[in-house]
Automatic annotation (TrEMBL):
Protein name as it appears in the record: Ribulose-phosphate 3-epimerase
A Pfam family: Ribul_P_3_epim
Metabolic or biological pathway, per its Swiss-Prot or TrEMBL entry: Carbohydrate degradation
Similarity comment: family membership: Belongs to the ribulose-phosphate 3-epimerase family.
Keyword Magnesium included in the entry's annotation: no
Binding site residues for substrate: 6, 63, 139-142, 172-174, 194-195
Gene (name only): rpe
One GO CC term, this protein: cytoplasm
Length: 216
């Protein structure tokens, strides 16, 4: 299991220090980009990603929750993103978008909102490096995990096995120390956690506790 702390729940007035707290224990840094249109919230853009890149060697897992992501892929690629994830729901020509991300030498991910069926990804699974299953409706941190998404994760894992593919399964939304084990057992390879990590008294220790919770 890899852990990708989401800076959506970090203290933006003290962002560098918050990320330094988890840098040695995290596997990736999850960066949520929201435009106020695709989701009802606004966060950061490529300028902030570029600024953070100067200070950290962690792989940057950039999740674009935005309309018309094709217009910004080049900027995020040049800003230092390592993985660029777009939403199936935001892409008219999803295959083209995936190829555009890969054209900049980046790993390509595709995310699904809770109500979007896996069937919509059938013809692009062989082209992606990662599928991100949202287990809350995107836009805000601190939401409750949607339990019915466990079956969706299990079904995606089976699809991967049946097709003989090796993309990673990332899960984001409402994951904490009490449900992380069942999420991993369902098929998650990468766990995104925001408030559970950054709002804890010791974020680095909390990451260690996440790993222990899965091992029990």
């Amino acid at each position: 299991m890899k852990i990708a702390p989401s800076i959506l729940s970090a203290n933006f007035a003290n962002l560098l220090e918050d990320i330094k707290k988890i840098e040695k224990d995290a596997d990736l840094l999850h960066i949520d980009v929201m435009d106020g249109h695709f989701v009802p919230n606004i966060t950061i853009g490529p300028v902030v990603v570029k600024s953070l890149r100067k200070f950290f060697s962690l792989p940057f897992d950039v999740h674009l929750m935005i309309e018309n992501p094709d217009l910004y892929i080049e900027e995020f690629a040049n800003s230092g993103a390592d993985i660029i994830t777009v939403h199936q729901e935001a892409c008219i020509h999803l295959h083209r978008t995936i190829q555009k991300i890969k054209g900049y030498g980046k790993k390509a991910g595709v995310s699904l909102n809770p109500a979007t069926p896996l069937e919509t990804l059938k013809y692009i699974l062989q082209d992606v490096d990662m599928i991100l299953i949202m287990t809350v409706n995107p836009g805000f941190g601190g939401q409750k995990f949607i339990d019915s998404m466990l079956k969706k994760i299990e079904e995606l894992k089976k699809m991967r096995e049946d097709l003989g593919l090796n993309f990673e399964i990332e899960v984001d939304g409402g994951i904490n120390l009490y449900n992380v084990k069942e999420v991993v057992e369902a098929g998650a390879d990468i766990i995104v956690a925001g408030s559970a990590i950054f709002e804890s008294s010791n974020p680095a220790q909390t990451i260690k506790e996440f790993r222990k919770a899965v091992e029990k």
